[in-house]
């Protein structure tokens, strides 16, 4: 499974294209199967359906935990770094993690959770979040982790979409010097969630919380009363493992569904190869488990490889902007995986926070979530890697489950700001607006993938048509990523950003329509239009154009009120950076908003707005420009 040279990479790649089934079967057979598979792949991108290893049975936790008990029971699996730097870090070894997962699996079973049930997890970054995820996987319940920064309304939407039976949360969360309510937010959500029967609450902050008799249970108490043994449920490879909601260009977030077998094989394979993980090394992924990066490269990928994975509760700037570097020293981190927005933000705090830190344990650096611009690349390389660590700029998506286009650390020759080459099994294709393939090098186009890989999205929960229309209908026969991409003279790939109405704010995916819907809920707002614009730290910022019913009396106050509404409806991550009050929006005669113009104004590029002759009222544009922020 391990690639150790550039030549081997090319050989593996070629094999994965020529004989994909043989290639992936060979890798899949390195895992423990309860019942071996005989069929490798069945697929159809026209009437979308993909099945990998479909008649095989396995359990991902048997591979991520039990398999290592024979060889490395006493090695660290999860190293928990608490929010307070002075607090003791807690290490869970493979045998301890296994025991905690088995116990909590029994807690879930005692509450009537069975295979196929959906469980919502809304927790801060503490070990119990990983334990809850793995316990679901062990008994075959489908976990749906909701990022701890989402509002009650967002939690409710997600719970209701997949009809979760149980919610797992904490009393509160601690991030930096803030204490944040969790249970209270869940309580607000549950007012409109009839499917939820039980809420399990782990203590973290000792914040007083309401506990409703017959519904709410304390994690600690249930854990004490649960039996220790819990065999891993035999799962069909194509049984759903989890749902993770993500934003698209239209409507409500959709529940991306990943299944057990393919996801296991692909996350394990990509983790081992891209980071060139060596036994005993410490891996630190700074992503929250509430996002796909945390699922695949904090929990599943590392544990499947018997790795030591750091789970950090806090924020990069608490107690100061040197926190990541202190953690690297404290735990002798060898591989560090973070997002460009974090790099740019820390860069902005000044080099004094990094200059005297001992980063000598580092061997490999990784980046994910948005384009890593050259300036940030160089700072990452010079200051963090001290010129000694290859940087893997990994391009992938919630829908792809695992890394897709990425260097292999120390093996693929690098180029700043390039995700470089596709990993084995990944067959990218650039197409033009009409879906025609763009061949050759030194070209730009929309990025599609023409062949399935094991952890490709299987469906969007409860709405397979939506999955088909979102990903497989723009360019028939191809998976469309939503990203624009350049392939340079050397055949290297550089992702240029989304080409749809999805924004990427600090590496978080947010749909323009979602933010507009939230703004429109604010009293007195008639209509709004939201676009992304370049932002030095966040990558993109949110610019909102808002039409109010009456002229605002105090613009600043109304802006703050609108932010409060957006925070309540979605969460603080979706708050616009700029709100411009306008009297009209540039619309075509058919009523479509010309976002192109709004994007240009937001970017401050008003000299060349292109053709505006099809606008219903071209004078609107003048007034928008004159009021631009
Ligand atoms: C963007 C995160 C440039 C891209 C794993 C993609 C990137 C979206 C990179 C998916 C990268 C991710 N370079 N852009 N290395 N990685 N993106 O679903 O636009 O949260 O479509 O998954 O992030 O975001 P998601």
From TrEMBL:
Belongs to the ATP-dependent AMP-binding enzyme family. The gene is acs. Residues 66-452 form the AMP-dependent synthetase/ligase domain. This is Acetate--CoA ligase. PANTHER family: ACETYL-COENZYME A SYNTHETASE, ACETYL-COENZYME A SYNTHETASE 1. It comes from the Bacteria. Residues 9-64 form the Acetyl-coenzyme A synthetase N-terminal domain. It is an enzyme of class 6 (ligase). Residues 514-592 form the AMP-binding enzyme C-terminal domain. It comes from Aquirufa novilacunae. GO terms for molecular function: acetate-CoA ligase activity. Keywords: Acetylation, ATP-binding, Ligase, Nucleotide-binding. The lineage of its organism: Bacteria, Pseudomonadati, Bacteroidota, Cytophagia, Cytophagales.
